[in-house]
């Protein structure tokens, strides 16, 4: 009886278990289906985003004017990423470079063209390009401030390089980033609410109070809002936000590009940003100098002769990190921004650049000589000798301004060490490039040659009164008299070149 009674119960239990199994299988199937749908939706969403990014990149490359780029940024909205904005700025800077080259070519072919109807239309087109370029710069900086989490050191370096072309002295958006007084740039946070006119006029306390009473509160708020969204304030804010995240991870060439872009802009960043840039570049210089010194010591200890400069020693030791262009632009940017590097920074710079000087081009020599003289540095004698030797090698390919900057820099650094042969070569090149020399370049050339000749004349035997009293005439050997005669003949040749250049 018990077994007969338990049979239906067991059968009912088996039916319940079967139903539970079916329900579990159904739930697992539903879960698998929902997961596959979610993965499919996410992959579809990722694919659509990737397609949108590719479409935006293609549209940026197809834009031909500042107006088209501005319309693209305005119409894309929140779909724009940091890569897109950097690509837009790079495209706009290529427009600016192309326009500048065309204008320079036209001025050479047809100098002094009078204003015509065609020129008037060109002026109107140029004004529209200027307005579009300025709006594009402001809108691009606004978008970058919204996507700061995406910004990398590469983005920041490319952004500053593009802005240097667009907002530099000859850029189409030169008025977008206004040059501020140095005191204003150092305390931008405390004086951000004042207008530029107020800073220039510097009214007294009574006049400022009267102005605050006359201007309605709504107008003052609008004025402060306009100043807050000005491109130079946007750029200052962008530098402050990205300094802690982008600068420590930046490569040496990226840091140099940042400094170069800031030096070309009419804007001085905050002292904190500049010091952080200087400190980070100094750390890279120190690491490279230590690595090069350690490698050279290992080569010497192992009995391998160290490679000399002419056989590519720089490319072996530090070429993977530094290059002649990066080193020259680094010192030029520091001098333009009036940054005084500390001693540890300079020691590493002299050691690294000493290895790269044999590969310096004409522009590298001119920038380095000008920057070292502007900062009133005292480079090692070996470094300066290498720079002068390389200047003689590339003197023939220098521009008029490059010749002037090179001679002026060397005359400031150590005029008595400048070879007369270098002076002769530079003057001969200046005579050939006389048409491209302006008054400032000519003044620098004449002053530099005069300083070098005066310093070297004082070192010749028999010229100074003190030397004539201390050294008898019989004690002067024939070889010294011959060298003195050659030096005087070289100086006479330099005087003739100066007369020819002046005429």
Kindly summarize this structure in a few lines:
This protein is mostly helical. The chain is built from 22 helices and no strands.
Radius of gyration: 34 Å
> For the terminal residues, how far apart are their CA atoms?
137 Å
Oligomer: single chain
Q: List how many beta strands DSSP finds.
A: 0
* Main structural class: mainly alpha
Give the amount of beta strand, in percent. under 5%
Largest β sheet strand count, sense and barrel closure: none
Helix coverage percent: over 70%
Low-confidence stretches: 1-11, 37-43, 114-118, 180-213, 220-228, 306-315, 463-471
Provide the succession of SSEs: HHHHHHHHHHHHHHHHHHHHHH
Explain this structure.
By secondary structure, the chain is mainly α. It has helices at 2-62, 66-76, 82-109, 117-146, 153-167, 182-186, 196-201, 205-214, 217-228, 231-246, 252-264, 271-301, 313-317, 324-336, 343-356, 362-374, 381-394, 400-413, 420-432, 439-457, 465-470, 478-502.
